[in-house]
User: Fold this.
Amino acid sequence: MSEQAARGGIGTPPSESGVRLAAGEITDNWWLWLVTGIAWIIVSVVILQFDETSVRAVGVIIGFMFLFAGIQNLFVASMAVPLRWVWACFGVLFVIAGLISIAYPEDTVAGLADLLGFLFLLIGLWWMVQAFLERAVNPLWWLGLIAGVLMTGVAFWTSGQFFIEKAYVILVFAGLWALMQGIADIARAFAVRGLHEAA
Assistant:
């Protein structure tokens, strides 16, 4: 046995108390997913009330959606979760996208119309990755996987639309994005709460 392994360094599994401490830190905050899930659903209802003429407002709302998603991912990355660097990377990307969207809302909507399919593809891929990351602790992980697959299909469909149709599609799918994120967060909250009670 090497000296490093004997000291409990790299290559040895974490102690049982370390795993329990990390699990306790994550499960103690189960209610945060419930709150953010409800907030996402409220955002989806607000977005779906707009029409395609509210271009500036749509750009700002989309910016805040990206910011909110980024902050949420950065918060999860600050906890003792597996592959926390993945959460942090996506959190930083979402925050940057949110700041740019708020600074240039009209350009955001025009740019989103051009890049809409690609953005939906990124969101769909992240949801699928997130589902697999949570598979060990979330019995409803498959909801995120299904949402990711559906969003990926939407990405390919949206790429073939014209600009005027895309402006309206941006509204509808931004609302659907918020709705699916809210449902996934609420399901995640109750799954984490179940783990908290079991621990």
Remarks:
- The longest helix spans residues 163-198.
